Amino acid sequence: CYLPTATSHRPPNDHPMIHSWKALVLFHILWPFAIHDVSSFSPSITLPSRPSIHARHQNHHHPQTGDAHGNRLLSRIRLSVVDDNNDDDGTAPDDKNLPLFIEAKDSSARSIISDIPLSLLQSIETVRQRHFSTTTTNGDASSNENLLKQLVELTNSKKSEATETFLDNCISFQQMERVPGCIATVHVKTTLIPTSDNPNEYRVLVQGSSDALLSGGLVELLSKVLAGSDTENCVTASDVLKLQPEALTTALGLQNVLTRGRNDGMASMMRVVQRQIQSLLDAQFVGGEQQFGEKNTEASIETTNVNGSERKPTVAMLLSGGVDSSVAMHLLLRQNYNVTAFYLRIWLEDELAHLGECPWEDDLQVCQSVCEHAGNVTLETVSLGKEYRERVVQYTIEEAQRGRTPNPDIMCNSRIKFGCFLEYIEKAGLEFDHVASGHYARLEDVVSPSTTTNLQKRLFRAPDPVKDQSYFLCALTQKQLSKVIFPIGMYQKSEVRELANEFQLPNRNRPDSQGLCFLGKVKFDEFLASYLGNRPGDVVDAMTGDIIGRHNGLWYHTVGQRKGIGKVMFPLATAHGPWYVVAKDQGRDIVYVSNRYDEDDFARARSEFELEDIRWISGTPPLDVKGTETDAEWSEVRFDLKIRHGPKIVKGTLVLSGDGSTGNVHLDNKDGGLAPGQYVVFYQIGTLECLGAGVISEKHWAKFLQTQQNETSTGEEQELEVKR
Fold it and tell me: In terms of DSSP bridges, do strands 608-616 and 662-667 run parallel, antiparallel, or are they unpaired?
């Protein structure tokens, strides 16, 4: 047996000599117990008909739960092969022989080791050494994140080289089979290749695809492991059938790195592969004799040349000319997708040409350069200016004219990029498996609660809190999300820039675009002025009712605004600032301002509001917002909320009303500006999942404006009475 090694994180006064002394004392104390029961000290474990395998413990740190120093110690079994010709003298095995870590509880270590065929253990370690950095076994958060990134990078690597020599008499499933229970949409297909020395044994080739980067990496990892490390000690179909599916991620050292859903998904992939192998083997034996190379339709197999071309999943890539969408396209190409790029031309050149140059020409040239650099990827230009004008610009103008705060970016995603564009490719008869974009957001699949087969898409915030764009995607439906993939959703912006440099993209130094997608260099106020012109009105002190300025139009101001409001106020009033816009009265063209915005007078107006047009990404409200079977009322539920795009998350409660399309929100703390028309997005606390959204209603201002009108009417009546 071997004494446990010291942990890698020790206090400053923890000297190695002290550990050596402690270890010696501990050895003398524990030796009598070890003579009677050595099982607890992980002795060498000899497996039948194969070399001995030594198991010993090492402690690794995990950040979630910990010891006295805040470190969680993961029990791992270190395996090493000992040749049968060498005597087991109790010394530590040579670490060059299969330095594999298997994470497991002590009580299960023996069974896990004994259940994994030696050829698979060797293949696993070969894959780990080739594709994973040795620094990823520390168990801390950063190493886990690096390991996940390396898994994603596996999708960019070449497919497993399992078919170089064995080309004849291969038997294969006729088509890809979908793997049930996976977070992403995963398909796999198994091919059996006869070994050179034994025609009754087969090597295993697994081909697969996924609509998620991480799941795609797991598919490729499975393919590489089952392909075997070499031809002399190859992994055979019988070896694969002996493996317990749940033990695979444990043997790979991924059990504590992957989520429960990913672990279950990997086990499901293994089960499907094993079922396909068994079906192929059963189909090969007819009447006790093996039949090679014959098609058996009942088993859904066919004889194939494994060098034959496989259909690649097709993707319509929305390319804007920016770095994000360009990197996303390159990632898809490296995942073996068949990509066609589309540039959506939505610039309103006719209406806005007088305001500045048309940026879409520059964007299109950049897109062409990116596609040429990527190997002459097909680039199509789709003109959706008319649709954009009708579905986004008109909405923006109407909302602004009503004094509300529009959000054209949300409408652009739901009505154009994943609305009109999907309609366009459908009407044009273009068949694509997926539609991709360069958005920073994540998608996962979940089984629909109403069925056991249909999958629903779940939308999550991106790891980069600043670049996260789930807020802008909150209005998408399940139908729209069903085909969508976000290749850069799990990356930080800095990492996307690094990938752009790594790919040597022609636009890698291009700055990020700012503002609305159709405006380019045009300012939003100039855009509104070109459509709505000016409509002057009074600027009124919300506390005194005094007129302290004149504005040029309600649409140039929004609630919570401070910057720029002084330009429309009388000079004497500006000295008593700072002033904030607190409300707008569209009926009387009044902008209300106050220099007491942070005081209790506006506490309720800044923390409580009404919502309308509430929609949920799943199609129905979450279960916890519904009343009980005996109570028809809606329940009060807490959410994380985004009131505008950006990293800031606030907490509050929601109570729905009526049919569930309206409701009341109460924030834990005051917000800087709650404006009608503004979207409020709900996130499940602790999971980053985007659940749905609603729009702030004018009812938010109703009580305040009614009070102002009553006070104005009372003042006018009193003034009239005095005159009489």
Answer: antiparallel
Which DSSP string corresponds to 371-391?
HHHTTS--EEEEE-HHHHIII
Task: Read off the pLDDT of each residue in 166-195 and give the average, rounded to a whole number.
Answer: 76
Question: Would you state the pLDDT for residue 46?
Answer: 32
Rounded alpha-carbon distances, angstroms, from residue 357 to 39, 122, 360, 361, 397 = 78, 62, 9, 9, 22
CA–CA distance, 320 with 513 (Å, rounded to integer): 10
Q: According to the per-residue pLDDT averaged within each range, which of 50-64, 266-280, 474-488, 619-633 is highest?
A: 474-488
Rounded (10°) angle between helices 260-284 and 213-227: 40
Is 160 a residue whose pLDDT tops 60? no
Q: What would the two tokens of residue 675 be?
A: 């404006």
Check 371, 412, 474, 690 and give the catalytic one.
Answer: 412
Catalytic residue among 170, 182, 371, 517: 517
- H/E stretch holding 301 reads strand 301-303
Reply yes or no on whether the pLDDT at 91 is more than 70: no
Report how far residue 236's alpha carbon sits from residue 335's, in angstroms, rounded to the nearest whole number: 27
Kindly tell me if the per-residue pLDDT of 159 is higher than 70: no
Residue 14: burial class (beta carbons within 10 Å; 0-12, 13-18, 19+)? exposed
Query: Encoding tokens for residue 540?
Result: 């009124």
Q: Residue 698's pLDDT is what?
A: 84
> Catalytic: 412?
yes
Structure-derived torsion over alpha carbons of residues 707, 710, 715, 717, reported in degrees to the nearest 10: -170
In this predicted model, what pLDDT tens digit does every residue of 251-270 receive, in sequence order?
A: 888 888 887 767 878 888 99
Would you say 680 and 642 are in contact if contact means Cβ atoms under 8 Å apart?
yes
Classified as helix, coil or strand, 442 is strand
**Which stretch of DSSP H or E encloses residue 114?**
helix 106-115
pLDDT for position 35: 40
DSSP characters over 617-677: TTSS--GGGSPPTT--SPPPEEEEEESSSSS--EEEEEEEETTTTEEEEEESS--S---TT
Q: 211: number of CA atoms within 13 Å, CB side?
A: 26
Question: Residues with Cβ < 8 Å from 249, sequence gap 6 or more?
Answer: 255, 258, 262, 263, 266, 267
Distance of CA 699 to the CA centre of its chain: 35
Q: Examine the residue annotation and report whether 367 is marked as an active-site residue of this protein.
A: no
Q: What is the model's pLDDT at position 722?
A: 55
Q: Which residues contact 478 (CB under 8 A, 6 or more apart)?
A: 456, 457, 617, 618, 619
562-565-567-571 Cα dihedral, nearest 10 degrees: -90
Taking each helix axis as running N to C, give the angle between helix 394-401 and helix 524-532, from 0 to 180 degrees, rounded to the nearest 10: 80
pLDDT at residue 553 tops 90: yes
DSSP, collapsed to helix, strand or coil, labels residue 73 as strand
Predicted structure pTM score: 0.58
pLDDT (tens digit, 9 = 90+) per residue, 484-539? 999 999 999 999 999 999 999 999 999 887 655 555 556 788 888 888 999 999 99
Nearest to 138 by CA among 66, 18, 58: 58
